Each structure stands twice: as C-alpha cells, then as structure tokens.
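pipeline/complex-builder :: batch 7 item 3
reading input block
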Amino acid sequence: MARVRKTVTIRDVAEDAGVSLQTVSRVVNDGPNVRPQVRDKVRAAIDRLGYVPSLAAQRMSGSRSYIILAINDRERTLADWRERLGTDWVDQMLLGGILTCSQHGYRMMVELVDTHSDHVERELGAALSALQPDGVILTPPHSENRLITQLLAERRIPFARIGSNAPGPGIPLTMGDEGAAHLAATRLIELGHRRIGMIAGPSQYSLSGWRVDGWKRALAEAGLPHDGLLEVGDFGYESGASAATALLDRNPDLTAIIASNDQMALAALETARDRGLRVPDDLSLISFDNTPIVRFSQPPLTAVDQPIAETVSRAVEQLIAREPDGDNDAVIEVAAGLVERASTAPAPVRA
Amino acid sequence: MARVRKTVTIRDVAEDAGVSLQTVSRVVNDGPNVRPQVRDKVRAAIDRLGYVPSLAAQRMSGSRSYIILAINDRERTLADWRERLGTDWVDQMLLGGILTCSQHGYRMMVELVDTHSDHVERELGAALSALQPDGVILTPPHSENRLITQLLAERRIPFARIGSNAPGPGIPLTMGDEGAAHLAATRLIELGHRRIGMIAGPSQYSLSGWRVDGWKRALAEAGLPHDGLLEVGDFGYESGASAATALLDRNPDLTAIIASNDQMALAALETARDRGLRVPDDLSLISFDNTPIVRFSQPPLTAVDQPIAETVSRAVEQLIAREPDGDNDAVIEVAAGLVERASTAPAPVRA
DNA sequence: ACAAGTCTTGAGAACGCTCTCAAGATGCGC
DNA sequence: GCGCATCTTGAGAGCGTTCTCAAGACTTGT
C-alpha cells in the first residue's frame, strides 16, 4: 500500500510551496522578514507533507544539538539497575530531566562514564565530541569532580552543578541542605528530643557537610551539645546499620536519629527494630531524600523531601536559556521541605 | 591558557597523518583495504588529536544514527515522576536499556508521547523524523497500540514489542507471564492453599490475560475451582485495595492472593492488615514485578521477578543486530522467576 | 518622480562525514 | 617481463540544514 516513503526534506517543502529552500528555513525557525502570505503558504506545505527538520542536519549546519547530557557513573548505575532503584534518586533525576527537556523541544541523554578512573577525560571527551550537547548536568558527586568540571569549562559547554555551591564555571544549584537539616533537627527538638543522633553521608560530598552543619546549628540554638552524636556512613544500607548501632551503643539516652539518606534511614529502622526499640515510640527517625520507598516501610518515614526532580528541571531550563559563556555567579537554591509521617513522635518520658 | 579549541574533524586527522580524509574514514570504520602501516599512522594521529566522529555528521551521510528510542506515555511519566517511581518499572527499563545501548556504542532516548489521543501519529512521527532512530522499543501497553506499530512498520523502523506475542511487524518479546503465574499459583498450592484469589491487571494488556491463564491452569491441575476468585484492577494502588476487599468479602475462606503487580499487592497487604489479617499467617501474598519497593514492606513480599531490565536489554541487542527488514517470526521469551520472601507461608489450618 | 533606504527572497557555500568510482600501486601467472 | 586482477588510495558528490551575501521589490521623503 504505502510506498516506502522517502524522508521529507526542506527541499520537498520548498518545491511544494513554490518558494526557495531558504524561505522554508526561515519559516521553520520563526525568522523575520517573511511575508505573512508566504509564511502561511509554507506552513500549509509543511503540514501537508508532515515535514520535521532533521536534528542531525540542523546540528551539522551549526545550530544547537537540542541535547542535554546527564553524566552518570557507569559502575554505580549498574548497581542501581540491579537493586538500588527506587531507593536512590537517579530515576527521579532522570524523569525530571526528560520531562523538562521534552517540554522545551530538547532531549536528555544519559552518558555512562567511569568516573573513578582517569578515563573520565577520555570517555567524557568522546561523548562530548560525538554528541555535542548544548548542556551537561552534573549530580553529586560528579558536580565536584575537578576533572569533569575542568573539561567542560575548557570546551565551553554550559553545565549545571547540582549539589555544589563552590565558585567557578558551571551553574551551581543546591537543595538547601543546611536549612533542611536544621528544619528536621528543630522539629525533633520541638517534639522534646534532646539527644538527636546524625548519620552523615561521606565527606567527599559537600552536601554531607551542609547537612551536618544544619543539624549542629539547630542543636546549638537549643543549647544542646552534639558530642558523640555524629556517625558517618557511605549512603549504603550496611553503613547505615553500623552507624545506627554505634550511635545507639554509645548513647543509651538517644531518642532520635536523622539519617542523611533513605537507605541509611531504613537500615537504622531495622537496627532499632532488632534491638527491640519501637519507632517512633522509643526512637524517632527522619531521613533525607524522600524517595518513594520510605512511604511503604513500617512505619512510613518522616523525611526531608529533596526536590530532586524540580532541581534538575531548573538546571535544564537554565542550560537551555543560558548563553554559552554567560556568568553564573548566583547559586540557585531550591528549597527542601519536611514530610511528616509516622516515624516521628514526641520524645519518650524516661523513668 | 587553553585556547578555545575548535572541534577536531576528520580533516584535521587526515592532514596530521598525511593521508586523505577518506582513508581516515576507513580506519575509523574498520574498513578493509588499508595498509597496516597506514592504519597505525592514522590511529596515532587520531589518538594524538583526540578525534571522535560527530554523530550528527555520520547520520547525515547515511550511516546509522546510533539512537534507540523508547516510547513512553507523557501523562504516565508525569505521574511516575511525582509518586510512582520505584514502584513501577519504567526506571528499570530505562537503566537496563541505557546500559545496554552504552555497551554497544548506542544511546537510548526516551520519547514522551501522548499515547491516548490520536496525536500519537503526529507526535511520534515528528520524533522519528527528527531523530531518525535505528530502532524503537515499545513497552506495554504501547506494544499493542495499532497506531504506533503501524506507523513504525510503515516507516520501516525496526522495533521491539515487549509484552506482546501477536504476529505482525516488530520483534515480540515476552517475560513468560503465563508460566510465571502458574509457578506462583503452584507454589501456593504446594503450601496447602486451596482458595487462591487473583487480582488481575486491566484487560487491554495481553499480559493481564496471560497471568490469569497461568493461575487458572495451576488451579485446574490441582482440581481446584476458580469461581469468585478473580478481580480486575488497573495496576493502581486504589484498584488493588478495592479488589482485595472484594475478594476477601466474597471469600471468607481465602488464604492467598496473587496480585498482578507490586502496587496492587502492597494495597492488598494494607487491606489485609486493616482487616486484622496477618500476612503471611492468615493470608499469603505474591506479587508480580518485584520492583525494589517490595523488599522493604512489612513483611517483604514474595514476588514474581519480571526480568524487565534483561528483556529490554535483549530488545536493544536485537534491534542493533537486526536488518531493517528482517523477519521476526520467533517470540523471544525471557523467563521470570519467583523470589520467595516473607509474605508466603503454609495455609492456615482452619478450626 | 527619483534617490535612498528597508523588506523580502534566493543562490551558493559550509558543516563533517560516507559513498561511489576511478586511478595508481602491487602481485600473480605464464 | 608482460598483461591482468587485486589492493590501496584519493577526488568528488551528496546528506539536510543554516549562514552569508547579494539582488530584486517596496517604501518613504523630498
């Protein structure tokens, strides 16, 4: 029936509309200086033929590529794929980005890179050359990876650094980590808790430090000490369990824990349960991230809602709007909120 | 310091190596008929300059685009982004596909399309024209969307239909739904259950039917009736709750339920709990999909492990290998397994 | 009515690559 | 050592767009 259709090119449209190819291009790109009458005629032809410009050809002739690249760790991604999905936020980032790109006629691609070795430069460089993206999105911890940011700066490719507020090239965006931690700790203090433990993330993430800062500030404001109340994990389940164990061992009077991500909070929950502690009656728990998983645990966890998707969305919009060499002084901060669920309650009254 | 570097093109390499541009192209594409000595010289130049071919240019001159497109429902994706992430399998599909594409030098792009309206043709058509992907991956229910499959067939774009075994264009892949449901039901029968309810998915998904078939077959083999034991949901939480309620109301002797996805299973779990039923002591529960979420519920759910990532991976590989017009008679079936967790136990002994 | 703009349009080059085809180099059989 | 086949190399066209620039059509002011 339908003959094998050749691709409809701008030339076909030009012919059909009886104008030059250049005029069609102008119409497609909403260019100026086209008589309304001609414009309509061309538009009609475009509709009739179902013409859509080829991205490859557009890219070839110097325009944008309409591609935003998101860098991900290959190794990490593999692990996520197997088991961490839904407890981590790669996917929220992904879909948030894809959606926003789609709304602006862009596409998001995920580039898997071996970010641990010094292959980074080669691998990322190759991707940049092959794809020529209009922008790149970096998430923690890549946002603070010098090899990566330098390469991008050198190539003059606009990029966003999520979870980084350092000066330097690239648009910095944060999710108000300090404030969010402060909010969480303050809430616990309001509930009467005096000994509030913190399971921090690894120190190579700036946001780990910010969260600790916010927690400390809240304690200080209430005149509470923070001695022996800090443990550091690596965002993994196991590390969360050991950290919780250490905190509980060291502080018999502990009544609340803030964990720097959902994984570790879930681990703390299990740990508490194993020790015969009831959550929230004996121990209150607040986690960071609020990935979907925490709604289904028993009890559902109170969590700091990191607006990941929205932040990525903002990043995409910045990248699209931004001139390649624009200044990016101001840190864009997307505020996080606190979602109260059943893992927090007033501090128990000790006998 | 570093001067704004112009993109390294094939021409630069040719010049550097002292050969023609065409020779470089041959080396890059592992073409035949190049003297080893020349090949090495060119390779050296490529390394020295850090040359990587531009995908856009390659595409322009008729070669592949190295893009695999995954079609997703825009509306659905938005919902996932907000709250369903991690309880659905969009993300597993995504990362599985991205990983496999990456391994073969391809990229996966997600195209959001309004699959409900008749805009499909226009929207999808535009994406195909713009991107000119080498292959398209369709997941349920899009795999069985006539408008979509016809458009793809017409354009001669290789595509994979996941969760569809119907004849026709496109590579069909299934995840052994009938067998998996049979396996789940059989396991429950082994545990002594005689009244096993089924919460099916919506009928427009073929796989909903297959799962019901497998369940029925297992019951029949054990000489058990299935009267009043079937309820249909829409894969959403609410529908799962109503279905579970209906099943339990109607069958006081019910001791087990198979739910056609994790969402609905989780809903059934809550419903049972609300009714004072203990899982698994009073009621055993098996879900489909085995998304990460079911490991963290209380109790963790026994689930049919749908090998989604692997299936998508297989699909990608097929698409990459396949000739545009090759025959795709054989259905590729990736087998599902059963992961036993704490939501299944021997049937209770009634007084 | 004429010069000097301003709008509108189109011709041609360029982007970076691969394809086709022809020419030169090399090898083989006798 | 000659003719022919094969291997290796390169020149040129073409892919579908946008950019530059020049030419023609219309305005406007006097």
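note: The radius of gyration of chain B is 26 Å.
queue -> next item
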